[in-house]
Design brief:
This protein is an alpha/beta fold. It folds into 3 domains: 214 residues, FAD/NAD(P)-binding domain, CATH 3.50.50; 120 residues, FAD/NAD(P)-binding domain, CATH 3.50.50.60; 115 residues, FAD/NAD-linked reductase, C-terminal dimerisation domain (Enolase-like, domain 1, 2-Layer Sandwich), CATH 3.30.390.30. The strands form 5 sheets. Strands 1-2-3-4-5 form a 5-stranded mixed β-barrel. A 5-stranded antiparallel sheet has the order 16-17-20-19-18, sandwiched between helices. Strand 19 and strand 20 form a beta hairpin. The longest helix is centred in the first third of the chain and has 27 residues. The chain is globular and about 75 Å long.
Length: 483
């Protein structure tokens, strides 16, 4: 076993979005950087998260569009065949290309090494250091002026009787199946569960969704949840809300191996559901196991998250953390922004912070779910008076020409001032609409200003203008291109 000392300005544990953003920022500031990765380079997003899931969702939606083409007069519908293994192969090729271009090649371009091994903090005489058990044998000690924990998060499953014995899929393993299951029970009706449910349903599987809270998308506005449930039922997906998974039995994986899920409703009644596969989408937890955080005085929270201050410094002044491991918003763009911020603060003492007031979020169902800012309940809890308007997409010309008016736009404003505090949407292109809303909130715009901002006709973004106009006029009585 060999051991050698190496000096860096910043040593990063992890190689995902936060890690790479920090490494690039540090190199650009003249820093010497090393990354340590115990698994696959690139982290969650490119390998098993955003990129592969959205690629498969896009394919599933293409099949849905073909099947729904009959909504246009003079057109028929087509039911496209699915070669699932080839679909997965295409996803894998896309991932491999992006991994090479956006991670491996970038590491070479910026000349920072990626050490393949498992890192743990140790208390050295002059402060913290990393002991790395190398994958190719031996060990290596890495010493740095500063350290960044960027180990991300992993799917979490609740303690359910029989679950571990029977086995289950997560959003990660579901995308590596070699064959399309005939039926899937999805446990969890938030963003990941909704995306996975639609993905498998639109590829041809029989899907059931179980959500423990009283509605799907339980952290979104109630108007959003209602539309989402209707959309899923239109897709032939069975929905059970206010239902808790209490036990699992069976084997799964074939005609005679169906898994049985026992579900308890809020009233106490129990129902048995059967499917070939069980997919658990009940959230993610920070990955901090084996890091030796106690040895260097780094505190963690109730869910294992690394506790940081507003500058992303941990309780050890030389150790920082960024991304999902901090327990904050689990978005790749947040991880990247935090990685850059942590590097700036560590290497230059910048003292920067991030403002999450206008942080947008998107669930890539179709129609998509998107939101930014506060809900009406949050406004009231903050001691403000709320003035809200909800616009059905039946009033939006883009939705009318698309022959699909399923959706809603809701504006949450402060009563009196009219300042826009939140926007919530279900619509095709909702992510693009919500980007405009994020700018409006960042600029402190009022509903009146939003109503009188230029918007191109026959874009879904016009829904935002129409929702703002609905504060003062009956939009049903406007001409097709509202003035």
């Amino acid at each position: 076993m060999s051991e050698r000392e190496t000096e860096y300005d910043l040593a990063v544990i992890g190689s995902g979005s936060a890690a790479f953003a920090a490494a690039i920022a540090a190199v650009n500031r003249g820093g010497r950087v090393a990354l340590v990765e115990r698994g696959t380079v690139g982290g969650t997003c490119v390998n098993v998260g955003c990129v592969p899931s959205k690629a498969l969702l896009a394919a599933a939606d293409a099949r849905r569009v073909a099947a729904a083409a009959g909504r246009f007069p003079g057109m028929g519908s087509a039911r496209l065949a699915v070669d699932f293994s080839e679909l997965i192969g295409g996803k894998d090729a896309l991932v491999a290309g992006m991994l090479t271009e956006k991670y491996l090649n970038l590491a070479a371009d910026y000349s920072f090494p990626i050490v393949h091994g498992t890192a743990a903090f140790i208390a050295a005489g002059d402060g913290p250091a990393l002991n790395v058990a190398l994958h190719d044998g031996g060990s290596r000690r890495i010493a740095a002026a500063h350290y960044l924990i960027a180990t991300g998060s992993a799917p979490w499953a609740p303690p359910v009787d029989g679950l571990d014995a029977v086995g289950y899929l997560t959003s990660t393993t579901a995308m590596d199946l070699s064959t399309l299951p005939e039926s899937v029970i999805v446990v969890g009706g938030n963003s990941v569960g909704l995306e996975q449910a639609q993905l498998f349903a639109r590829l041809g599987a029989k899907v059931t969704v179980i959500e423990a809270m009283d509605r799907l998308a339980p952290f979104e506005e109630p108007e959003v949840s209602a539309v989402v449930e209707d959309v899923l039922r239109d897709d032939g997906i069975a929905v059970h809300v206010g239902a808790t998974l209490v036990a699992v039995s069976g084997r799964g994986g074939g005609e005679d191996g169906a898994k049985t899920a026992r579900v308890r409703a809020a009233a106490g009644t129990e129902t048995e559901l059967r499917a070939e596969q069980l997919l658990i989408a009940t959230g993610r937890r920070p990955v901090t196991d084996g890091l030796g955080l106690d040895a260097v005085g780094v505190k963690t929270g109730a869910r294992g998250e690394v506790v940081v201050d507003e500058h992303l410094r941990t309780t050890n002044p030389r150790i920082w953390a960024a991304g999902d491991v901090t327990g904050g918003p689990q978005f790749v763009y947040v991880a990247a922004a935090q990685g850059t911020l942590a590097a700036d603060n560590a290497l230059t003492g910048a003292g920067r912070t991030l403002d999450y007031t206008a942080l947008p979020r998107v669930t890539f169902t179709s129609p998509a779910i998107a939101a930014v800012g506060m809900t009406d309940v949050q406004v009231i809890r903050a001691g403000m008076r709320c003035d809200c308007r909800t616009l059905d997409l039946a009033h939006v010309p883009r939705a009318l020409v698309n022959r699909d008016t399923r959706g809603v736009i809701k504006i949450v404003a402060e009563a009196g001032s009219g300042r826009v505090l939140g926007v919530h949407a279900v619509a095709d292109g909702a992510g693009d609409v919500i980007t405009a809303a994020a700018y409006a909130i960042s600029a402190g715009m009022t509903v009146d200003q939003l109503a009188h901002t230029w918007v191109p006709y026959l874009t879904m973004a016009e829904a935002l203008k129409l929702a703002a106009l609905s504060y003062t006029v009956d939009v049903a009585k406007l001409s097709c291109c509202a003035g």
